[in-house]
Automatic annotation (TrEMBL):
InterPro entries: Ergot_Alk_Oxidoreductase, NAD(P)-bd_dom, NAD(P)-bd_dom_sf. PANTHER family: PRESTALK A DIFFERENTIATION PROTEIN A, PTHR43162. Residues 7-178 form the NAD(P)-binding domain. Pfam families: NAD_binding_10. This is Nucleotide-diphosphate-sugar epimerase.
Length: 277
C-alpha cells in the first residue's frame, strides 16, 4: 500500500518522504503545485489541494496512511475523503502550543487545535505530532545574513527549544510504519535550550564568517514583522519576552522514538549553511 505525504514542498514533508523511502515504503507526494516539487524518481507526485475536494479522491486512491499538515481550511475535506478512500491512519503535524494553559490566546494553537479536533471527531485513527519551535524559523534571517552579515531582532537572550525538521520527520516515519502509535500525541523539542544569540553564533560558525546580532527594541522589531499580521507578531513578541533569559525545558521524545539523540541547532545550521551563504 501507498503512504500519502501532503505539503510536498515543506521541509518536514521532504524529510518524511526521504526517510520513508529509506525503510522501503511506497510514497505518493501531494502538492498544490506539483510541477514545483522536486522528488526522487520512485515517488509519485500528484496535484492535490486540501480545500478542493475534487482533487483529493485521486490522490488518496490506494493509500493506506497519510502524513499531513494541520491546515484547518482543508482538514474537513481531507477527513471526509480519507474515510471514503478507506485510509487506515493519519499522522498530523500539529504544534506544541495546543498544550498551553490558554491555547485560545495563540493563533497558531487555535489553528492546530481545530485540525486535531477534526480528526478526533472522525472515524480515522490518528497520531498527533506536537513539535516545539521549528529550527527552520531562523531562515527568516537568511536574507540579511547573506546580504549584510547581520541579524536584527529583539531579545537576543530569549531561549528556544528549536527542533530540526529531520527529527520531526523521523518521529513521523515511526508513527507511520510501526505499531503502537494510534491515539498518541507526541510533544517534542530539540535537545537543548538555546538563545537567539547562540543561534546566530551557530549559523556564523556554520558559514565560516561573522554574523552580528543587532538588538532592536520590541517596537522596532514589531515594525519589521508587520507583514506577518498582528496576531502572529503579538504572539512572537510575547514568546520572546517570556523566555528572555529563561531556559526552556527539553523533552527526549526524539531519542525515545528513534533510539538516538535529537540533532542540535549547531547541526541544523551546518545542514542549512548554504541557505545563509
Amino acid at each position: 500500500m501507498t503512504i500519502l505525504v501532503t505539503g510536498g514542498r515543506g521541509h518536514v514533508a521532504r524529510g518524511v518522504v526521504g526517510q520513508l523511502l529509506e525503510v522501503g515504503e511506497k510514497v505518493r507526494l501531494a502538492s498544490r503545485n506539483p510541477t514545483a516539487v522536486t522528488a526522487p524518481d520512485s515517488v509519485e507526485v500528484v496535484g492535490a489541494d486540501l480545500t478542493r475536494v475534487d482533487t483529493l479522491a485521486p490522490a488518496l486512491a490506494g493509500v493506506s496512511k497519510v502524513f499531513c499538515y494541520a491546515d484547518p481550511a482543508g482538514i474537513d475535506s481531507l477527513v471526509t475523503a480519507a474515510q471514503d478512500a478507506g485510509v487506515g491512519h493519519v499522522v498530523l503535524l500539529s504544534a506544541s502550543p495546543v498544550t498551553a494553559a490558554n491555547p485560545a490566546a495563540n493563533p497558531l494553537a487555535v489553528m492546530h487545535k481545530a485540525a486535531e479536533q477534526a480528526l478526533l471527531d472522525s472515524e480515522l485513527s490518528w497520531t498527533f505530532l506536537r513539535p516545539a519551535t521549528f529550527a527552520t524559523n531562523t531562515l527568516q534571517w537568511a536574507q540579511s545574513i547573506r546580504r549584510e552579515g547581520v541579524v536584527r531582532a529583539a531579545y537576543p537572550e530569549a531561549h528556544t527549544d528549536a527542533i530540526h525538521e529531520a527529527d520531526i520527520a523521523a518521529v513521523a516515519v515511526r508513527a507511520l510504519t510501526e505499531e503502537g502509535h494510534v491515539g498518541r500525541a507526541y510533544l517534542m523539542t530539540g535537545p537543548e535550550s538555546v538563545t537567539q544569540r547562540q543561534q546566530v553564533e551557530a549559523i556564523s560558525a556554520a558559514i565560516g564568517r561573522p554574523v552580528e546580532f543587532v538588538e532592536l527594541t520590541p517596537a522596532e522589531y514589531r515594525e519589521t514583522l508587520a507583514r506577518w499580521g498582528g496576531g502572529l507578531v503579538d504572539q512572537l513578541i510575547r514568546y520572546l519576552a517570556e523566555n528572555d533569559g529563561v531556559p526552556m525545558p527539553v523533552i527526549n521524545t526524539v531519542e525515545l522514538m528513534t533510539g538516538r539523540p535529537a540533532r542540535t541547532f549547531a547541526q541544523w545550521a551546518r545542514d542549512h549553511a548554504d541557505e545563509f551563504r
